[in-house]
Amino acid sequence: MQQVTGFSRSNAVDERATIRSSDADIIDLGALLATLWRGKWIIGAVTSLAILSGGYYAYAVAVPIYTATSVVKLETQEQSVVDLESVVSGLSADSVTINSEIEVMRSRSLAGKVVDRLDLMNDPEFNASLQAPGRLESLKAHLRDVLMGSRDWVARTEEQQAALRRNMTVDALLERVSITNIPNSLVFRIQATSESPATAAEIADAVAELYILNQLDVKFEATQQATAWLTERVAELRIELEAAEAKLAAFSTETELVSPEALQGLERQLKELRDRIATTSEALAAQSDLEAALADARTRQQRATASGDSQLQRLLPRTESDTAVAQAFDTRFAQVTERARLEVERTTLQLAALRSSETELRARIDAQGDDLIALQQLAREAEASRSLYEYFLGRLKETAAQQGIQQADSRVLSSAVLPQRPTTPRKSLVLAMAALLGLMAGAAIVLLREGRNRSFRTPDALEAATGHAVLGQIPRIPVRSRRKVLEYLRTKTSSATAEAFRNLRTSVMLSNVDTPPKVILSTSALPGEGKTTNSIALAHNFVGMGKKVLLIEGDIRRRTLNAYFDELPAEGLASVISGAVEKEDVIRPVPEYGFHVLIGEKTQVNAADLFSSDRFQALIADLRNDFDVIIVDTPPVLVVPDARIISQEADAVLFTVKWDSTSRDQVQEALRLLRQGDQQITGLVLSQINPGGMKRYGYGGKYGAYGVHGSKYYVN
């Protein structure tokens, strides 16, 4: 049957879908809060359960743990350590020192001393081997063996087992002791926890005391090591000093005694001797030149000039005239020549003697210089050995005197006080955290339920999911039995429910203004969605328009109209289709409501085959001539195919969706099956809307006849 839409309902649906898509990424805080408010009872129940669980743990299960605190201050000495006093000096105040001292207090060696002092090996709280294994521990061990495999058994001696138990006790103690440094100070806070307040205080005090004793022990050991090393070193230096002095004495005995002053006198003699050698060398050169000049002179004039002799100068003028004078001149020249030769020989011998003396004196000076240097070196070595020996001997005496007078680098500011109240569990905090976790868990459950809810609560959501317009929004009728539904519609004509059905009737009529639908099919996806009630109410409202209306019970398998009407015939639709009776015989009027009813009946023939027959088509065509409006109440689409078959004869198809119940997948699958028959869905009906629920969901002031503003118009 062709349908012509009187107004562009599909365009309106598309427009609303566009608006919704633009707001899809916006978080509606109001809707979120409304969802949480709707689930307030769930949130309250989960929160209460969490608080009860937390209270049970805090007051019945958890073991009270006490914490004791002792305070230690680090004493520092800011000084430059340049000598052996560093073995007993104080500590610096830098962060490295502070962190190092914290690690010392956390060390296993110090913890072992605490274990020994307090005999924690016999305390089951710290020595797990003394505890009876609980069920939880046994279960953990069993699961570990199952998941990871049983550990290979390793045979251990008694000593190894004792060492293992001791290590486990030390580990347990370290887990219960914490060391913290108060910021910007040299103060350390030692905190110890235990199930016993006395044990906690004893552990905190023991750690502080043993830490200070450990500092003294370290200094004492360092002093002892220094003393032993100094003693050994002094003995070695004494031997080295004696050897140096003996070597110096032997050298002095074997060597001519010399001194720097005597060596300086010899050097002055050497200088004078070298001056004489230079003078003699010059004289020898002059004499040799004179001897050579005399030997080269050939005439008496050359001889007199070369010799420079005054006597030869007097005799020279008369040598030419007097033979005796000439002979005397020659004799004198021979004497001068001989004398010059003799002077050269004498000066040469004198120069050789001077040079020999120089060589001897130089050798003597060199020998005595080497001996002096060696003597001085030996003397310096002996003096150095003596100074080093005396220095180490003094340090040895100082270090030996310091034994037993060392002071610790820390002191106890305050000893641990016996705790009066347990620090854990903090019952108020446990309850507060349990309440917070309960609120979070409850809210998560509510939001998870909301997220998993695939039903429909608003016409916008239904239109967006299906693409079809919602023609009616029907509130839930406030009656308990089906028979009272008709009474309510008949008597409460000004109620919101009655007005909602009138709106539905108007929407159906306007769905095709030119050719108003005559045969209206009412169906749903599942049973119990209100399609039958909608069919009856719609028939009643068409009667109010002066229409002759027939209500056909197409759901012949369930036959629900018997629950609404009395005195219905035994035969019905199946008998009419089969030709056993005439339609006039089984169509009964309902005087109170003004419409006629054709009920279904049980039959051996399959319902789908019955509605697919030509007789059924002929019956509908015949009924069109007798009635103005025919409403066919059909079975659910997802249950049986009857509605899909009957829809081929309908002018309009109304698909009912139960509010906050039918899932999105069910609605979409039912509509898909209806569309397979090329039958267009006229519209959807959102039925059984709970006004109170709509208010809880935050929609009470927005939608339909059940809105908060309806109280001015409706009388419920």
Automatic annotation (TrEMBL):
It is found in: Cell inner membrane. InterPro entries: AAA_dom, Bact_polysacc_biosynth/exp, GNVR, LPS_length_determ_N, P-loop_NTPase, Wzc-like_C. The chain crosses the membrane at residues 429-448. CDD domains: BY-kinase (cd05387). Its EC number is 2.7.10.2. Residues 528-672 form the AAA domain. Keywords: ATP-binding, Cell inner membrane, Cell membrane, Coiled coil, Kinase, Membrane, Nucleotide-binding, Transferase, Transmembrane, Transmembrane helix, Tyrosine-protein kinase. This is non-specific protein-tyrosine kinase.
